[in-house]
Amino acid sequence: MSELSETLERAVDGGRLLATSFANILQLLRGGNNPLYTAAVEELARGDAWTELNDRFFKTLEFGTGGLRGRTIGKIVTSVERGEKAGSDCPEFPCVGTNAMNIYNVSRATQGLVLYLKECLARSDAKPGIAIAHDTRFFSRLFAEFTAKVATETGCDVYLFESSRSTPELSFAVRHTNAMAGIVITASHNPFHDNGYKVYLSDGAQIVEPHASRIIAQVNAIAGEVYDPLPQERQGKLILLGHDIDAVYKTRLRTLVLRPDVVAAQKGFKIVFTAIHGTGGSISVPVLRDLGFDVRTVPEQDKPDGGFCTVKSPNPENADALAMAVALAQAQNADLVVGTDPDADRLGVACRDQSGQMKLLSGNQIGSLLACYRIKTLKEQRVLTGENTPRAVILKTVVTTDLQKAIARKEGLRCVETLTGFKYIGAKLGKYEAALPAGIREKYRAMPELETRAARLKWSSYFVCGGEESYGYGGADFVRDKDGNGAAIMIAEVAAYAKSKGLTLDQFLDQVYVEYGCYLEKNGSLIFEGADGATKIRTLAKSYCATPPNEMDGSRVVGIQDFSAGGIQDSDGDVLPKENMTIFEVADGRRVAIRPSGTEPKIKFYLFAKNTNVSANSLNQVKASLAADLETLWDWLQVDARKRVGEG
User: Which of 164, 173, 538, 622 is an S-S bond match for 131, by CB 3.0 to 4.6 Å?
Assistant: First the structure.
């Protein structure tokens, strides 16, 4: 160790290794007590892989409000990490480093969470219950089982899924088992080399304040992975979850269908589904088939695979991820393509356009179709009436299309906007549940869906649907996170209804534009990886508040919202938490939101344009004009951003 320490000190003196990296290496080696760690660091140091060491150690992987997310496979994989899997995409051991997703950080996160749960229980003798699920990524099962081990040995009862399951089913399981918390091991749609650790509390929603900062403080106070197990009699139990809870979840998902007769009538409606090597097929496919849809899957992508071998990225918003499904749909003359990411919380869709070709829909378009269809259907069914409609609500994030706000406004519903992240939508659902009378709250989770809907419309707020532009949607509150399984069912119903009217989904969307206004969006991002990249992202994000532009793409900036300053209220009158995000409005009606990603090394840009004076005859021209305006704005933003970080 002394020889390695001297080598590292010389690298610091020579400017090759950051001082923070050196300090974190020493912390890991002292707190991990694992010879693999020393061997990996020595191998990288001998190979002068200082950039790799800095990327792995320049900080400790931060446990944020979204939990943990980071590389579990290094850019350079050492021979000791590769182990006996020399020819495999997946090494034998996770990436060594304080800034990596590995046993070291999973242990710290679990220890901190358990301490917080016990603190919440105060002097109670009850054991906290924790539900745990994982996706199909590399090391996901290892991390889930290790998390269960730490939790049980430190005094928690654990409900562990027997094999991979989706994130929304984990959220459902937390509520169904009355667990005090939930954990899902996933990095959602990130590249194959990443993994993550998301935390939920007893309401089934991801953690928000005040719990988030308190859990973070507990986790950050833990320096190493080693812990002392409790005596056997004080340890928790391990309960495996399997097909029984799957059946309960599927039954609840079927209640999302508003027009069973329309779905049943579309016997020839073909859907191509792809799980993109993830968890979605185990729930979505059988439920869709039970409802009467003719569902075909992509055989090559049915098999769980943490390397996602058939795609560049397992992100269903990307054309590449759905390419095989689209090709199968063309060959088999299917009506619809749906695909979910590895943990099945996000959903991508392709439908036929007027020429008969398959066309990808954006996350904003999918959410708007769901909102319009579900609102109009509930009104036609007299579920929503003139009297109770003000109690119905659409929930969306501030960076999601304003078309959904326009639909809600015209139909008499509230549209409440949250910060980016479905956890804030989950928190709203918790608030609406808390507004119910005590007698209803006590039995709420066990009540049938129609009864909960009636109660919310009478006493609180009824969540019709909602979501975020990043392909995450919800249509009920029995799941408190975005639900790709539920979204697959909802969008299949919309498409079946459109076909019953002689329309494709694309044509149905055009009718929405004509009725409520044409709203187009474009998302862009700039990627800055590693330690230097993290600094550039922070610098760039701060610059938009410190030196805001006076104009964008030739149009004057007429409004600026700085969410980092706090004090901004939503339409419910609740103050939004502070967030590192700035929104600019320009004189020609375009709008730009800018924020660093919370899970990836990038800064995100959300661009909006609209034209509310549109007819069926002018729609195509309006679309083309708005799309061109968004492209020139994005070009301007990229040039401006590069200048702000000194690359212009």
Answer: 173
Helices (H) and strands (E) counted in the chain, each on its own, are 23, 21
Closest alpha carbon to 66 in 196, 169, 249, 255:
196
Left (φ > 0), alpha (ψ -120 to 50) or beta: where does 620 sit? alpha
Answer whether 495's CB lies under 8 Å from 335's CB: yes
> Could you tell me if 368 and 509 are in contact, meaning their C-beta atoms sit under 8 angstroms apart?
yes
* Strand ranges, E, within 144-257: 157-161, 181-185, 194-201, 238-241
Structure tokens at 545: 């508040």
In the residue annotation, 368 being an active-site residue is answered as no
pLDDT tens-digit series, residues 388-426: 999 999 999 999 999 999 999 999 999 999 999 999 999
- Residue 574 class from Cβ within 10 Å (0-12 exposed, 13-18 middle, 19+ buried)? middle
DSSP for residue 128: P
Helical segments of 303-448, H only? 319-332, 363-380, 403-411, 422-434, 438-443
* Cβ atoms of 264 and 288 closer than 8 Å: no
Q: Do 246-502 and 517-644 agree at the fold level? A: no
CATH number for the domain formed by residue range(s) 246-502: 3.40.120.10
d(CA 320, CA 322): 5
Q: What is the pTM of this model?
A: 0.94
Query: Distance between CA 81 and CA 85 in Å, rounded?
Result: 9
Q: What is the DSSP string of 335-368?
A: SEEEEE-TTS--EEEEEE-TTS-EEEEPHHHHHH
Domain 2-241 CATH superfamily:
Alpha-D-Glucose-1,6-Bisphosphate, subunit A, domain 3 (3.40.120.10)
**pLDDT, tens digit, 9 for 90 and up, residues 130-185:** 999 999 999 999 999 999 999 999 999 999 999 999 999 999 999 999 999 999 99
Provide the b/e sequence for 114-145 (b: ≥16 CB within 10 Å): bbbbbeeeeeeeebbbbbbbbbbbbbbbbbbe
Identify the CA nearest to 193 among candidates 317, 308, 43. Answer: 308
- As a whole number of angstroms, the distance between CA 458 and CA 463 comes to 13
Q: Which helix (H) or strand (E) holds 134?
A: strand 129-134
In the chain, where the domains are located = 2-241, 246-502, 517-644
Distance CA 248, CA 639 (A): 52
Say whether domain 517-644 belongs to CATH 3.30.310: yes
Which residue in 168, 216, 66 sits closest to 599, CA to CA? 66
Q: Which of the following is catalytic: 21, 164, 188, 543? A: 188
Q: What tokens were used for 474?
A: 């919800």
